[in-house]
Amino acid sequence: MSRQAAVSTTSDVAAKPSKLFVLDTNVLMHDPTSVYRFEEHDVFLPIMTLEELDNHKKGMSEIARNARQVTRTLDEIVSSMDDAIEQGIKLHEASRRLASGRLFLQTEAIASELPAGLPTAKADNQILAVVIHLQRQHPERSVILVSKDINMRIKARTLGLQAQDYFNDKVLEDTDILYTGMRELSAEFWDEHGQGMESWQQDGHTLYRFKGPLCTQFLANQFLIQEGESPLHAIVRNASGTSAEIQTLTDYTHARNSVWGITARNREQNFALNLLMNPEIDFVTLLGQAGTGKTLLTLAAGLTQVLETRRYKEIIMTRVTVPVGEDIGFLPGTEEEKMGPWMGALEDNLEVLNKSDEETGDWGRAATHDLIRNRIKIKSLNFMRGRTFLNKFLIIDEAQNLTPKQMKTLITRAGPATKVVCLGNIAQIDTPYLTEGSSGLAYVVDRFKGWAHAGHITLQRGERSRLADYAAEVL
After folding, report:
1. What single-letter DSSP state applies at residue 89?
2. pLDDT reported for residue 445
3. What region holds the PIN domain (predicted)?
4. Same domain, yes or no: 307 and 382
5. What are the backbone dihedrals phi and psi of residue 406, each rounded to the nearest 5 degrees, phi first?
């Protein structure tokens, strides 16, 4: 349902005629099931939208796959038609009761009524002409153009038409409320929850079990912080009803607990290493701006568990290949060689990890580098469908550029004993039509919070250099 429809009262819905949403092609290709997402309202597809879908259906890209899926969905809807097509096709049965409106297809030629400055041959302008026609034909109804194209929406508004973005893909309206993985406890917390508390030791950690009103808000694997004279850093192991069980953390800021020679430099990095080194946690998401140590900590944890404890067989690293500047064209070589230029972050971090052992000398470091590179495989997203990763440490870098659907495709590749780590910064999205609220990374953070085998932390402080920290702050 649209945001406007969501806030209307029941009496308003009964009194007003349903809205008519005209869908731009990019909405259908962004979400192939979008025709079912408008609940009681009607959906209209201009003939030019179908033409553009036809132009994009060839190939193996995500857009081409989505275009083909939309075409199949529309075929299924049209096949279930009972009434004349001009009356609209009921979506109730085809959508499995998700939508109760009708789908209208353009069945007649519509004369262009656009201002002289807009060329009628352009597909976007023909869709705008359809919206103008529908607005005149149905003055009693709200006719709204839905498009992911900002320029298209601006053009529509300058012509006096209603236009809006497609909101259904948004996980959050405001990324400030995105789950951070941490919760600060007040000074009065133990006064309210300390009565009848149990505590015991297990595997070098102290565990506490207590009851209280705040326990209902705790999530599994959420970090609890209480600063002061006797600071507490703990993780929620179990929370059910008004009781909770929490456990103290391994202190990775101390050199004796270093991971591949790396120690945590701040509170959030310590939390991240507790998630990355925990065999019970299968899925980890790390958010943070450039220089917070996401990739370095993940690689250090991965190498320790692959080469030292042998918990996993190898590290697999992948990322979306979206260029920041101009694309440099086709790259020669094997899959791994083609991905090489995209994996500069991997090489930079391996250099840091390789320097952590100063006593080995140049020969020793060269041998270690070869050993490490032999256990890290770089894979392209293009070849992930149908694969199953067994006993692997899978790192998805720059995950903010993935759509929720791509993220699902990747995470469902995980077989038994595989750990998946997603890294990203939702303030640096390079994929067209994706926003902070609709990114696949924000989607999985929101959906996995509270699952007993998943953990998330938002890294706050940059640890790259004083220059990088100052640039991130002032630029």
Report:
1. E
2. 93
3. 19-154
4. yes
5. -65, -40
DSSP tag of 408: H
CA 302 to CA 370: how far, in whole Å? 16
Residue 426 counted as domain residue: yes
Write the CATH number for 236: 2.40.240
One domain, residues 144 and 235: no
| DSSP state, residue 118 | S
Burial 102-126 (b: 16+ CB within 10 A, else e): bbbbbeeebebebeeeeeeeeebbb
- Is 311 among the domain residues? yes
Beta sheet of 392-397, edge-to-edge order: 376-378, 314-319, 392-397, 419-424, 283-287, 454-458
- Identify the bridge partners of residue 22 per DSSP, sorted by sequence position: 44, 145
Residue 8 has pLDDT above 80, yes or no: no
Tens digits of residue pLDDT in 396-431 = 988 998 888 888 888 998 999 999 999 999 888 877
Predicted model pTM: 0.73
- DSSP letters, 192-222, are HH-TT-EEEEETTEEEEEEE-GGGGG--TT-
CA dist list (Å): 452 to 201, 246, 449:
21, 13, 9
Q: Is residue 257 part of a domain?
A: no
Same domain, 109 and 24: yes
Domain holding 144, by residue range, is 3-164
Mean pLDDT of 269-286: 96
Are residues 278 and 207 part of one domain?
A: no
- Domain identity same for 136 and 266: no
